[in-house]
Amino acid sequence: MKTNQRTPLTPFRCGFTGQVKRCTEGNIPIMEEDILTDNLTNREIQDLKIKCPWCTEVIDFSSFEIHRSTCKDQIVTCPEGCRVQMKRKLVAFHLSQECLSKLVECEHCHDTFPRKESRSHFTTCILVPHPCQLCEVLVTRRSMENHINTSCMRACVSCPFKALGCEEEDIERLYLGAHLQKDVARHLTLLYQAFYTLCENVTRLLQKNSTNSSIESFLKILEKFKQSHLSSSEEMPTIVNGDKKTDVSEKVLHYEDSLSVALPAKVTSLEHQNKELTIKVNHLEQQLEEQKRQVSKLCTSMSVLEERICNGIFFWKIKNCSSLAEETKQTGGMVCYSPAFYTTPFGYKACLRLFLQPSGDENDFVVSLFLHFMRGNYDEILSWPFQGSFYLIIISQTEDPSCKHIVNVLEANSNLQTFQRPKSERNVKGFGYKEFTKMSKLYSGGYIKNETLIIKIEIVSLS
User: Fold this and answer.
1) Strands 431-438 and 103-105
2) I need a labelling partner for 10 at 20 to 30 A (CA). Which of 32, 47, 87, 331 fits?
């Protein structure tokens, strides 16, 4: 016998809140099957005016679904998967500037990677320009070795005449041309000595094995030296070929005459090359200055990047504490500011201020510590005044577990000028402690090591 299966009933839920609707009398859930369709009532409902819960715009009920899918003030989640929630109108800006999961392209190697891996990729990409450790010219990591071996003007090279006896070693390539021009006579002397030594060796060899072919071979060697502009001004020995005496000296003198003409031309050619090298050096010096400017811009960009990626947790190293104390003793007070940092890559910009002043005890000083907000690049999209809290921490640098960090927590007060949007480069008013601690406690408690004090600040924004 066939059993009739009953279709389960579906509770009726509110289209806005998603809650199950119940009967006002018996508190019984209302099922969709219990709701009767009334076209007249439905038309009245569709004509009702409602207020959008996100942008507060008044629209027809019938148009709400369309409006909800396009409302610029609706809170949505990042489509790239970084789980950050924002208004729909800020999605495009978030994807182009903030989203750490957004794929970006390296301008050098055109590889793609998530934005959060930009720093690690920049330090390993073989096509990123990197300053040469010798001449500071920007060269890609892939070409660095070839640059040092072939074109780096600060790389040390040997004189081309080293094999002939030149004692100059480890000459910077930049000064090699000057060395060649200065020691032309010396180098020609070395060439002559090498040539004369070669002639003596060949003469002894031919005397042991005197044949016409040997003499022809020797003459071919002399011809090669002529083509290479090698010099000789000494009279060559006579070679005996069996019973017949062959005077090689006359032929050698013929080559000497040719060389006496060729050598001045060679010297002129070297002088011309030296002038070209001088022009090239001047050009390279101009390029070096331009590369230095680019390196300075890159260092500035890296500094700005480091400011932005700290995510509100910033460590400030203060060195030469004894010098600061001595300056305070002489001037009666000393102020120094930390580098700027951001709470998020596109959040609030702030810095710390340290103030030292003499205390009642001799040779001791009061340490004051304040937080200042600074004018940032994205202040117009942030909520002001700043709302949140921050932790001021002096790090213990001793291995003694009983010595703890000095920690103080402060809550932002929206009524103070400190937390208002900066109208100048840095808010004049700061917020912190006039007597955070004393210098003697920092020394005795192990908070200063190797004349270095480490201060940590952690900012938690509620905006």
Assistant:
1) unpaired
2) 47
